[in-house]
Structure of FAD-dependent oxidoreductase:
Amino acid sequence: MNKQDVLIVGAGPTGLVLALWLTQQGITVRIIDKSTGPGTTSRALAVQARTLELYRQLDLADAVIAAGNRNLSINLWIKGKRKAHISVGEAGAGLSPYPFVLIYPQDLHEQLLVERLETLGIRVERQTELIDFEDKGDKITARLQMPNGEEETCEAQYLAGCDGARSTIRHKIGAAFEGGTYSQVFYVADVEVSGLTPPDEVHLALDHSDFVAVLSYGKNGQSRLIGTVRDERAERAETLTFDDVGQQAIRNLGLQVHQVNWFSTYRVHHRVTDRFRSGRAFLLGDAAHIHSPAGGQGMNTGISDAINLAWKLAAAVKGEAPDSLLDSYQAERLLFARKLVDTTDRVFTFVTAESSFADFVRTRIAPLFLPVASTMGPVREFMFRVISQTTLSYHESPLSQGVAGKVHGGDRLPWVSVDGTDNYEPLKTITWQVHVYGSARAELKTWCEAHHLPLHVYAWGPEYEKAGFARDAAYLLRPDTYVALAAPSGAPADLETYLKDWIHGL
């Protein structure tokens, strides 16, 4: 019987990232997908700053950036006139080593992840489908249908459901998937265009009866168009072509569409499961939450699910942590998913609402407010933090403890680069570690050495104070780079107590 530590069902970005992070930590995985091969359409495009920060752990960030297109600015157009220009790059400067939104088509993204996984000796098993599984308390037994139609039984310590919105695993564990479906019908088209100025920025066009977003992602004017399908055309959405959809907003941008490479219509759903874990089975990505495309958050959220769970599964498989550590996956990711769905729902509703009042706000009020707001540093910074997911924290998690300066347990570690010294450099290693900004106490150094825990000390300077650090405090970082414990005293006793509760292997 085939046996492995973790069986991953679904080889989209979420499943592939989970397989990569687990394999890097010495965990054996098997990843299956019922499709014949990787996706061939662009689908999700945005790769956010927080995802790139985490991609440094597997030396993926540079390769993804080199293959993608940086979008540093967003332009808002109303009835053919540009009303606001928001520079994302300026807003994110000093907050992240990646102060931009990267546009990188999902099909190319998946290919890169598959290739990287193959270099680690793991191959995605295609045309292989999970038929059923049983949680026996100490292991998972799964029935698989193989490409030749025969069935195979395999065992794993844990099962990861990365199998999309119609998840077999979610149905099997009886998890709810509450939410709804927006009434509007939308279209997405991958096109080759000209006439857009500037050609390499994000453009949002709002008109009385039309909406379109334009995102450039390649050479020769390759762009993604996202728009609404209105009036009676929505009733025959399945048979529409690009020529059938509203063209007013497109024309008002001065856009000429020369080639349509892919076109599809869809309805947008917003749903969150009530359980991310049931025994030894876990839900990740679209299997656990789906929401509107506002802000390009979907794929990035699934990737964050995978990285959050990966280090916890690794600790559990190795016997280094209690089962309660795995419970923290649901505690952290369920709360974030609910907040994300609520936030994207409000933005999406504003942009797409069909009423005279909503039309008035979009075309009259927004053009007055946004140009002013876009020049205000705090507003632009807030927008970058939200879109980039660098504002995500786990303050309410059972794993998060302490406050030192303005940094709380559960925070993403503030990024600081001083004279070429980048405090994110040590985060490339998937491990627990301690950071001190100032001077580390002698007993802390001794304790870290005894526990084989990396200690990184940064000479105090105003940049660290500005970022919110407390001088000489000790910050214990989780393997996914979030602050587990902020200890103002810098003494090892607090760290000792924390690790005794959560990690036995240090």
